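User: I'm new to structure prediction. If I give you an amino acid sequence, what do you actually give back? Let's try with this one:
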Amino acid sequence: MAGGVWGRARGGPVGALTLTALAERIRTSQGQPMRPPSQGPQPEPELKPEAEPAAAREPCSPSPAQESDPKGPNQLPAWKRLASRGLRRPRSPCLRHWKPGESGWRTRAAAELWRSLSRNQRVNGQVLVQLLWALKGTAGPEQKALAAIRALGEMLSVSGCVGATRGFYPHLLLALVTQLHELAQGPHCLDSPRVWAPSDRGPPHSHASCAVEALKALLTGDGGRMVVTCMEQAGGWRRLAGHHTHLEGVLLLASAMVAHADHHLRGLFADLLPRLRSTNNTQRLTAMAFFTGLLQSGPTARLLQEEVILERLRAWQGDPDPTVRWLGLLGLGHLALNRGKVRHVKVLLPVLLGALGEGDVRLVGAALGALRRVLLQPQAPVRRLSTELGPYLPPLLDDARDSIRSSAVGLLGTLVRRGRGGLRLGLRGPLRKLVLKSLVPLLLRLHDPSLDAAESSEWTLARCDRALRWGLLEEVVTVAHYDSPEALSRICRHLVQWYPNHVPSFLSQTQGYLRSPQDPLRRAAAVLIGFLVHHTSPRRINQDLLDSLFQDLGQLQSDPEPAVVAAAQVSSQQVGAGLSPVKAGGPSLAPHCTVVSSGTLQLRCTLGLVLDAGLQSTPSHQPPHTHTGHAYSPCKAHCPQTPLSAGSHHHHDGHVP
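Assistant: Good question. You get back a string of structure tokens that encode the predicted 3D arrangement of the chain. For your 657 residues, that looks like this:
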């Protein structure tokens, strides 16, 4: 069984051969009798000092003259005679001489030694095992381990050498990945180290680069060129060598192997299980990340009973380390979804929903991603998620972290798309309540400084428009791309007509954004308040709410951003008109659109007195751009039209969403 032959020699010297089967196979190929393996250190092969005194003193550094004119077996350098004899354990004095940072002819000679040993099929397997033990037998990036990494890179770069790793390939791959984690935790590690490329002159520039090149050679020599390519395209190698991104690189490597090198997954899975309980933190976390990634392979995950894997992943959720909890969440998502349907819902959903309240961005992001994948599966629990996401999702729409905000908005859009049938039937269920509670954040997030969040908001509003049959897709697109007050006014007019009882809630939600630290959101909130009040009958709005809005808008008139001040002045007078019924008979204040060019076309709200000639009495089925009167008319010469045909979907049949 993979992993079982490594325990006996833990106390032995570094470089001791412990793969008994491999040793006996080599001995048999040389015609030597089978004998039990030695438990203690093996004696050094004796070299004749009179035959090669210089090589005996410096086995890693043969002189060029000795290499160029071999006239007989006794005149070969000692290290070549050692390789040609196929001796069982050529102990590695080369690791002592190949010091980190060393350069010059000794380094080149040592590299030639390893490549020569790699070409000798009688000993290359033994030497690879000894180098592997040099990695496994040291804790941290010690000098011998660093030299072993360079030696492995030289040997594995020789064509055909990877075939000698049969029987311990998973051990070697995991040892290299774990050593990269050790190097990433070092004091001189950079988050984005320079990875050596074959076009570069000279050797790789760091030990991390050497380890990456050794991994590439190991995978390429075994037919895993697609794994290497996928890692390069996804930035996986740089992540693998980064201080804060190593585990992300391990996950990418595991995913690439699941897709393109599945013939090694069983051996890797078996070797990972004992490492999951390792007392070495770096080894344990690397094993956890690999284990999590391999759960994407259904056949590999079935090597253990699902109940055992579930119990292990649930136990990780109680770990005080957020990294362990993050990996457990990813594993639960892979296990529940790798058969094309949602399973273990009773276990999965409580864990995912609980992670939405975590402070670590990785945990929240992993939970949102897993919930989205759950919704994309056949027979997804849409109604249950609509109910249980109610308390969690709205706060995440305003999360300070851009990635979380964007993912939460996208999850809401996916939920609306999957629950579209129920919404069209007019069900007054939890999903409808969730959509109405999220309308104001979605409209304001069209102006989010984060491009991903703004695009997610536009996509989600389009899903809501289709599911609830609003017919406002053109207005949504126009507001999103051209910041058009005229389009926003039409959206507000329809929302006030369709959901009059929710207008106070809309206003209260918008009021909170007046204190946003982001200028575009403060301005958008001021404009939205003005339009909602403008289209609402004053008797539907509590006077205390209007008074509170009036005070907050007044404070914004000292805002350092001029566009915010202009919008606040207009909306403040509109709200003030609602507070003063005596003035209701006079001309009402409404935004007037002018064009301000500053590199890109933007429509800004500025203070102006415009007579409201019949705007509120315009029928709901009136096509856009045909309003009578003067209000909210942008400059036709500068307000570009959207590619959607005007009025193509504004003909309602009396349906109220």
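You can read the tokens as a compact description of the fold. Here is one thing that stands out. The beta strands are 592-597, 601-606.
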